[in-house]
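Lecture 7 notes: from sequence to structure.
We start with the chain below.
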Amino acid sequence: MPATTHFDEALLESHLPVDVRTPLEFEEDHLPGAINVPLLSNEERVEIGTLYKQQGPHLARQRGLELTAHRFPEMVSTIASQVKGRPALVYCWRGGLRSKTVTSILDLTGHPAVQLIGGYKAFRGVVSDYFTPFSPKVPLIVLHGMTGIGKTTLLARLKERGCSVLDLEGLACHRGSAFGQLGLQQTLTQKRFETLLWDEIRKAPQGMPLILEGESERIGRVSLPGDFYQKMAAGVRVWCFASIETRVRRLIEEYGLPEYKEEMGAALQRIRKKLGGKKCEELEGHLERWEMEPFMTGLICDYYDKVYYKNREWVADFDLSMEDFDAAADELIARVKALP
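Predicted structure tokens for the same chain:
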């Protein structure tokens, strides 16, 4: 019998997670740092599952051996080349035959390996439980402010200075606005987003307030898990501000690339109803002529500032000028240190 173990996050540092599920299963989500060494292809898994249901486990296992036996040497070689002195933590969907088989083969060939009890399903339970309820061990410092302020840039500056930072938009591959997917591909699943979020919080510097940008419950196609949004809303609120001129310049720097023109036109159509036909046509004209300054100014004045935070009923714990990122980082760090 191969060695087995229950999931513990310390295993992610001491072992190499080896996911022996199909490429489709791996793409949906996987343990942080895992490599995919599939025992079955996507199509073969369907074939084996159908055979199991229709003719029983004996014939399904026999067919599985026929399909996979010739792959064992290459799988062992692939895993051995990646472990770099660590034992392999082998898992499948729920700690069944696939991971047991690969763990046994690794053990027989002299490579340290353990099978994860409960497989990916057990790990998924850990992540889900973490966010229901979400109980942050440190204060959450939440940056709010109108579009174009540069909150994501500030987060990057703070991270460079050793602060504990969480970039939700970066994890979601979406900027969280009507034009939020320009130049990005939000292909990750909800499960993958939650795993990335769990792992990022786990790896954040300990004992320091966690600084993040205020978001809605949805960021593109993914949602903040559990009661994360509610706990974020209850955090320390920082209202970030800058002049319209500064915001226009920053939006042009981020979005004003010719290769985005077609995507920008499509995004503009999605907000036509909120803009109104006349305003939308004006912006269409600016975009067609590539007049970025009036285009971005129009977006700010006629859309963003009328839609986002328009019903803000709360009062910020403090305001933060974002005209200069380094000065803003200095002030925010000083303010955070002074928190009770």
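Points to note: The longest helix spans residues 292-307. The chain has two domains: 4-129, 133-337.
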